[in-house]
Amino acid sequence: MTFDIILSGVGGQGVLSLSAIIAWSAMREGLHVKQSEVHGMSQRGGAVLANLRLADHEVASDLIPQGRASLVLSMEPLESLRYLRFLSPSGAVITSLNPVVNIPDYPDLDELVGHIRRLPRVILLDSERLARKAGSARASNMVIAGAASCLLPLKVETMEHFISTRFAAKGDPVVRQNLDAFHAGREAAAA
Amino acid sequence: MADLVVLGDEAVALGAVHAGITAAYAYPGTPSTEILEYLRVHAARHGAPLASWTANEKTAYEAALGVAFAGRRALVAMKHVGLNVAADPFMNSALVDLHGGLVVAVADDPGMHSSQNEQDSRYYADFARVICLEPANAQEAYEMTREAFDLSERFRVPVVVRLVTRLAHSRGVITAAPPRDENPVRKPASPVSWILLPAHARRQWRALLDRQQAVRAYTAASRHNVLSLDDRELGVVTAGIGRNYYLENLDDLGFVPSHLHIGAYPVPAEAVRLLAGHVRRLLVIEDGYPYVERRLRGLIPPAVEIRGRESGHLPPDGELNPDLVRNALGLASRPGVELPGFVLPNRPPQLCQGCPHCDMFQAITRALDGYAESVVMSDIGCYTLGALPPYNAIESCVCMGASVGMAKGAADAGIHPVVAVIGDSTFLHSGFTPLMDAVAANTDMTLVILDNEVVAMTGGQPTLLPSSRIEPLLRGLGVDPDHLHVVQAHPRQVDAIADLIRRELEHRGLSVVIGVRECLETAKTKKQKIPEAVQV
Description:
CATH topology of the largest domain in chain B: Rossmann fold
Mean pLDDT of chain A: 94
Number of strands of chain A: 6
CATH architecture of chain A: 3-Layer(aba) Sandwich
Strand order of the largest sheet of chain B: 3-2-4-5-7-6-12
Low-confidence stretches of chain A: none
Radius of gyration of chain B: 25 Å
CATH architecture of the largest domain in chain B: 3-Layer(aba) Sandwich
Distance between the termini of chain A: 27 Å
Largest interface: A-B, 51 and 51 residues
CATH class of chain A: Alpha Beta
Radius of gyration of chain A: 16 Å
CATH superfamily of the largest domain in chain B: Thiamin diphosphate (ThDP)-binding fold, Pyr/PP domains
Mean pLDDT of chain B: 95
Strand content of chain A: 15-25%
Number of helices of chain B: 19
Distance between the termini of chain B: 12 Å
Strand order of the largest sheet of chain A: 2-3-1-4-5-6
Number of helices of chain A: 6
Largest sheet of chain A: 6 strands, mixed
CATH superfamily of chain A: Pyruvate-ferredoxin oxidoreductase, PFOR, domain III
Oligomer: heterodimer
Largest sheet of chain B: 7 strands, mixed
Number of strands of chain B: 19
Strand content of chain B: 15-25%
Structural class of chain A: alpha/beta
Shape of chain A: globular
Number of domains of chain B: 3
């Protein structure tokens, strides 16, 4: 079994935290994991990409080959389309539909969403609204993680456990907000 | 010991700790920064080793060399172009008789994710006639770093551990081994080998050359160099992470090529000859320059064809990936998903909203308005993004500190007005020395120091000296106090700063304007600590 995930977004959106939830959970379930990250200049408001590879055997390449990814997880709608060449024709895209408009030629949002909907398997989420509803606008990436949990080869309890542990130092209310955001994403994806 | 999840950089750091280092030194530089960041967190928790940011890579290297002189172990870490800065002590330290291990962890950046070039540090190791180890994953990064210290003491040379971005910033699981104790302080029995007077240096150089035979015997036997003879047609030579891309595609190949993996340099010549004698064609897969490929051309008969980056069968530049290697192996890439009819705009990095650099760039551009011919030399840092729209405010970015010297040259050549724009940390790294030239000649130029009180681009490391020291430093150097100004880099001040710079442009001599405001990112987060490796 190999489950490759492309994670995308804009610098500062929490793409690496999103990747961390999945990576740690996969390791706890005994899978082999490689996670390739972007540090440095691109993090300044530019397009950010992480490669996350889960497998039941040792993973060779840090980078995902073309056409192999089972999943594109994107924190931003335009960025959900940037790495489609890595997505398997049977793979899925899960993306936030909340745009980060920091370039002059950002496409019209309705047109952009129309293009995204043309993809064979896609889940679009208003992650900011769901996160706010859960009590923390910053938990957008938890919403995406929750939606992803429907498709990942991982137990949902493992991911919940990780979220609880990760935010434990910040107190119970923060843990609850993030778990609520996670569940909101999971429910929205299942709907 | 328990398994740990770490970046490649962090694996190097932990390997160094477990090898018993007494000290580590570095200047921040992507993709090497996390090596010392990890060590600083480790040191804060455990009280050792000493982990220091330094003024630049040369001072880092020299401090590490001093530790080695005292018989103890030291790690020095830098990005590839940092080794240019440290090249002087690096080259010469190969000649002294090291008895305390000295390891240079250098992170190359093929593809130039965050760099001005993609130079390959294996050439430097070769140039200095020292050993280079090249890991392919985090576990190897850990083990090779540990071994590098033993090799350094065994062969009395500095040892290079070469990383590439894709390993430095890839997270994986490692199994650590029990740590080794630090060396006691022990000066060399005689300092003669450390005093590189010509007479001594000639002897030391000859001794280093004589030692090459023993070094080659080591790489011939090293477990990092692995030869397996299978197919008689194709032999694959992989180096470092090139092996990962090869293995990724191996199952689809339908046969098993003969294979030589190289993780320890100098290139194991006998293994290469055995491989070449077994096959008709070689494919060399290495990230960076075609270093191994070029070495092979001198080692094997011309009848054996060699394919690689030099021959054009793999791209001569940029970062390798599994698909480039797949195609070079004769396999087609798998189809991905396409979205015809949609053109994706690029999203380049940019200065943060409200960044103090924006205010200074506006002021500079306004001050220069109306001059027929002006130039703005700049440097390495976030502010290099001032080259992009909407600022289009700078005209050069070459290497750390170059803005100051290049401004002097442009002024000497007859351009007026000339501005140099440099950050506070880059100025302390290597802008101070060229400024001495400009002060001595009272060059007609204006230096603008963008002081955001932090090393911003690499993630907010502390600058070596607090900002308040820069002005007295410049006064001490002899900058005319009437033409030395400290201003607040703020949107409300842009007009006043523009007027000030304009006046200084009209002053026919050296002037310096320091624009101060803390980096927004630093102010916002006040530095989140990188967590130490979490146990699985």
